[in-house]
Amino acid sequence: MALISTEDAKAYLRVDSSDEDATVGILLASAIRLCIDIARLTDDQWEVIDSDAASSDEYTEAELSAIRETMKVAILYTCAYLFEHREEADHHALTMTLRSLLFAIREGAFS
């Protein structure tokens, strides 16, 4: 399972045609990586979050569900921001917003 597919991102962005598929795919990959980095997740943690697992050694079912929902919001927000501001993106402002969105994950509130 992918937490967010290109089709999910296109629906969120309200992109109906396939003309932007490559762009949306690239921006989605960038958004995912940026959110993983800002949330300070390891590759192993992300693998669990991005899987179908109901729980793990590190997270309870409730924690994993909350983390997934938070990450979905952050990733979709980031993808939309990058899509809408291709020419004049303020990456510092984006990073600060993501720090706020991902604060609980960054500070280990779920660990």
Automatic annotation (TrEMBL):
Source organism of the structure: Catenisphaera adipataccumulans
Domain of life, source organism: Bacteria
Protein name in UniProt: Phage gp6-like head-tail connector protein
